[in-house]
Hints:
The protein has 438 residues and is mainly beta. The chain has two domains: 55-392, 3 Solenoid (Pectate Lyase C-like); 396-437, no CATH class. It is built from three helices and 31 strands. It has helices at residues 2-26, 66-76, 169-172; strands at 55-57, 82-85, 93-96, 111-114, 118-122, 126-128, 132-135, 147-151, 160-164, 180-191, 194-198, 206-215, 218-223, 233-241, 249-254, 262-269, 275-280, 285-292, 296-300, 306-307, 310-315, 325-329, 335-336, 338-344, 351-355, 367-376, 382-386, 394-397, 410-413, 423-429, 432-437. The strands form four sheets. The chain has a 16-stranded mixed beta sheet that branches. It has a nine-stranded parallel beta sheet with strand order 6-9-11-13-15-17-19-22-25, with no helix packed on it. Strands 28-29-30-31 form a four-stranded mixed beta sheet, with no helix packed on it.
Amino acid sequence: MRIMKASVYKSVLFTSLAILAGWFSASPIRAFAQAGDNAICTASTPAGIKCSASFIDVTALAGADICAKIGTAIALLPAVGGVIDARGANPGTNQTCANSPWNGITTPPPAYIYLPTGSITIPATWVLPDRTRIFGEGRGGTNTSGTTIVAASGFTASTPIIEMGSSACESNTGICFGISVQDLMLDGNNQNVVGILNSHSQEQTYVERVSLHDITGTGLEISGSQAQNSGPYSDLAISPGSSAVAGTVCVQILSVGDTRGIHGLSCTADGTPNAGVLIDSNNNTIEDAHFEGVVDGIRVGSNAAATANVILNVTGGSGAGPMTNVVHVYSTNVVDDLVLSAIHQGSSGIDPIRDDTSADSPLTEASVALYVIGRPVGTNGVSRFTTSPNSVNWGVGGSAPTGSCKVGSLFSNTGGSGATTTLYLCALVSGSPAWVAH
């Protein structure tokens, strides 16, 4: 009986193994082991296969060029929008478009558009519709390491390569939201064009990790009240190239107010532009910036009033052009409530701060930790505070001050023993500045 029972167990085990072996041979590829390219959903997709309109790969779509293929995909998106992947459309090549991807589309849905490596030459401005985001494969500038959008020869002068929104946004109210450009390079082809223009798009609109190259007009322009609350505009590398002229500008902020600032900027010119950045607006921040080859790194108030702006951690450098000032404050328009912090000349011969509203300008030391211009005091000037010893300032120390001083400066002696040895004023004594106890 024991021998018979053991034989039955062996028979059952053998049969079970045989069944399992047959199942594996009939199904050699399991779902979690599958690999390969994405399937392209087309009109000829086999019956029973469900197509998703939320993600469209343009590789197999109709279109004479990559822009036309993207346009075909945009037309297939539902009204709520979706993702368009063009990274498989001839990556690593130089491609030329006849029209914009949105050509002929009257009401484009929101879209996240991924572009391939290589260059895409366009004949006219790409106007990004409401809630459209453009992603490149990096701003390396070569066919294998990044995505470059090139303005074709004969591009209309003073027009943008990319415009963020239009007056058609939000049922013709002229306000757009959620537009962005990131991880690519814009090449102006040494023409007087604008790299990116934002005059229409507000919250959730930004530019990130973008290079702007050989643009002899304006690299980035943020202008008009409809661009308020946009940004940040971060990690920008702008090089106008050897064709840059006096009017070439890396960034201009004009009559906007309340942007989320410029965070991380290098502006390196080979020509002789007058300025790297023009701030003629209110409530903006510029930080972590470096300038070379421009006369003034940042000009404040040269074209319009500028109130409540903050500029910090900015350096100059010896480039191809004759740089004179890192920050230049103009007196032609109202400039107040301005904070400058950690302004560094970078190279000898460059003044960190020139303030046309101050008789002590320019400040010629290597670095200025703090320089603040406040509101007007009566009709005789503005409130001003700085840590620079070369301008009217308020110093603090443990003993009475000695040495030269700027007339009007104050000094608090924390080691003073009486009412007349605690606070000192720099005044003219026999025609020369000297510290006088009060």
